[in-house]
Design brief:
By secondary structure, this protein is of the alpha/beta class. The chain is built from twelve helices and ten strands. It has a ten-stranded mixed beta sheet, with helices on both faces. α10 links the parallel β9 and β10.
Length: about 350
Amino acid sequence: MKLPAIFKHLVGLVLFGVLLGVAFTTEAAPSSNVAYRRIDVQDAATGELFPAALWYPTRAAPAPLFLTGSLAACRLPAMLCRLIAFEMQVAKNAPPADGKFGFIVISHGAGGLSLNHRDLAMALASHGYVVAAPTHPRGKDNDISGVGVWVGRPKQVSRVIDALLEDAELGSHIQRERIGVVGHSNGGYTALAVGGAKPSPAASVAHCRQHPDDSKFCSYGGAAAREATRKVGVVPDVRDPRVRAIVLMAPNTAPFTDDALAQVAVPVRVYGAERDDLTLVRYHAERLAKALPPQTEYVLVKRAGHFSFIASFPGALKLVAGEAARDPEGFDRDAMHEVINSEIVGFFDRKLPSGQTR
């Protein structure tokens, strides 16, 4: 039976639309499945081992993986694990895909975990990056101040870079001219330090003396944190020239003078949170954007809080996480992450371009 002309036309349009939709879907979809494994890295200063979570492209099929904050597997039924552990769709310990990849290190904020930014790590890995996120060792300090933060954190990032470049499975896949760092809060401090800004304890002390309205930041960690800052002394050069681009989310910038920030020569993208009550935008993200070279990219996320940059917590862990799991009223953390994760992938694609097609 012959189809009426108008019906043929409609069928043709539908088929064209389907094909067009497939084409768009193929372009927008992740270019790779994501593998996960854990390594342990030795702190050069203390000899302490600290864990790092790794994500990277693979051809292997993913499956649900439930991990605790210590990167141990949750062995309870899946229904219970979803309440108390972090779930990821990954291929555990799978071999990497063929090809060459950029490499990004993610540094969490004070007291955080390597899984704090797991959604960003997976977005990067699915688009052709190897990603490593250490859980910075606390040592005897509180991960807020002291030598363990000021010197230890940047050196730990450099040790992670060393470890991955020497890794038997992944090292040969990493393009050494395509290394970047992402940092949140004190992780932002860490990224700035490895990116070329020289920190100064005097700058942090002066900031709190000059800005009494920044009371929450300046009192964070209590007297112990302030005393640890005073004991730091001169901070050695912790810049890592292998780092070619950095992304900062609600960064702690108090430990840097404007002159120190002006020395950062790598591309930078900065995210500030409009309702951040810990690292106030005017003293941290906004000030940073003004002090860095003019090509710096700055985004102010409306209605976001300081901890909105951390991936959402499983149901039961929200109670334990406290303010790290809370956002300003009406703010949609998951929706924001979908946007900025894509933006950060795009930033590194632009600033760390690959000479090869992934």
